[in-house]
Design a protein that fits this description.
seven-stranded mixed sheet, alpha/beta, 9 strands, single chain, 262 residues, Rossmann fold, 2 domains
């Protein structure tokens, strides 16, 4: 039933478009008027969904939270190739062992966190954090629906609410490009000492330069995203306080999986 709800916006748009065509409007005019009517309805729906997901205040961050995307995130990601198979590949590289304590930084709606908890078993712990309260609200709702024991907290990477030597594994999947162009944010993963001495941080980020017609797309982006699209991900991770950095694989010829140790 939840999946069927996503059919409502396109059905509303198609319905309005057909009505205006039937009334004799030209095709482009019918489409334009339909968009004018339906888009505000979808926006209001999104706002109401966000308010229903969480009224908890957001965490202070210098990055770019995606609170507005929470109602659509789990529907959207698979459409661009970032569905369950991508999450499974991430966890295969991470090599989670039963009983490990795992932190998922920038967890979004918590899909990866819940899957990590499954791999960690009954004695394992998986905690997801995100500065966007609506994301955390959606993650908690999904965990409750699935019967998952994964935990979720509103928190930012710049001020992690955990003691030193707390985690065996830290996951950071497509989070770096939401941060400003300096190592202060991801430095929290290494500098605050939340990883145990033998712990590892697994990061998924853009891992190569993207080019089209001889021009790098990176120049159209600012900050850390530009650095990553230019192939600077390992240097950025090193500046954040990690020393043993190794690329383990890729996804869709754009994303890379990186292991980093202190």
């Amino acid at each position: 039933m939840r999946g069927l709800l996503w059919l409502c916006p396109p059905l509303m748009l198609a319905g309005a478009f057909l009505v205006f065509l039937y009334l004799g409007f030209p095709m482009l005019a019918a489409l334009f008027i339909s968009l004018l009517i339906v888009c505000p309805v979808i926006a209001v729906y999104g706002i109401l969904r966000i308010r229903g997901l969480s009224r908890e205040p957001g965490a202070r961050t210098r990055g770019m939270p995606l609170n507005w995307a929470a109602p659509f995130y789990e529907w959207y990601c698979p459409k661009i190739g970032l569905g369950r198979s991508f999450r499974e590949r991430t966890l295969e590289f991470a090599g989670i062992r039963p009983g490990e304590k795992i932190l998922d930084v920038g967890c979004g709606t918590g899909v990866l966190t819940r899957m990590a908890k499954e791999r960690g078993g009954r004695d394992g712990t998986a905690i997801g954090i995100d500065p966007a309260p609506a994301m955390i609200g959606a993650a908690r709702k999904a965990a409750s629906f699935e019967g998952s024991r994964a935990e979720f907290r509103v928190a930012a990477v710049e001020a992690l609410p955990f003691p030193d030597d707390c985690f065996d594994l830290v996951l950071s999947s497509l989070m770096l490009h939401h941060l400003p162009p300096d190592p202060e944010g991801p430095g929290s993963l290494g500098g605050q000492g939340i990883l145990r001495p033998a712990g590892v941080c697994w990061l998924t980020s853009t891992g190569r330069s993207i080019r089209c017609g001889g021009h790098s797309h990176g120049r159209f982006f600012s900050g850390i995203l530009q650095s990553q699209l230019g192939g600077g991900t390992p240097e950025f991770i090193k500046e954040a306080g990690f020393r043993e950095i190794e690329r383990k694989g890729g996804w869709m010829k754009i994303l890379g999986f990186w292991s980093a140790r202190k």
